[in-house]
Design brief:
five-stranded parallel β-sheet, 5 strands, globular
């Protein structure tokens, strides 16, 4: 995913991608503080890849949507199953959640641009994204 993140930065220079803290030489409290209390709190759009099961990504998704009222872009590789909870959340919160199937890095860029437009994010200032690249 590091390669994808570098590609996104090169294709979306107007955007700032916030760093998530991984569990390496830090405490669980450090991870929570950085990923949720700091990044989710200030991001303009929360992006989550749901290609793998991840409780952490689900907690961050919930915090972004319900705790901070942030718009959420859910990305899933074409052909992989998307949970009914994600799809149901999109149905009930269509003004805040967009689920997009992606097949390539460029389709991720397209999905992000579509989310920026759909959620009417301010493009005059750099959009800040908290992304969960699991």
């Amino acid at each position: 995913m590091a390669e994808l993140k570098m590609f996104l930065k090169s294709q979306l220079p107007e955007c700032e991608f916030l760093e998530i803290l991984e569990v390496v030489d830090v405490t669980a409290g450090d991870v929570y503080k950085k990923n949720i209390s700091e990044n989710v709190a200030i991001c303009d759009l929360f992006i989550v890849f749901i290609d793998e099961e991840s409780t952490g990504a689900g907690i961050e998704f919930g915090a972004a949507l319900y705790g901070y009222g942030k718009p959420v872009l859910v990305l899933a590789t074409e052909g992989l199953k998307v949970s009914w909870l994600c799809l149901g959340a999109e149905e009930h919160h269509s003004e805040q959640i967009m689920v997009s199937r992606v097949v390539s890095p460029i389709s991720v860029v397209i999905a992000i641009r579509e989310a920026i437009k759909a959620f009417k994010l301010d493009t005059e200032n750099p959009a800040r994204f908290q992304g969960r690249y699991t």
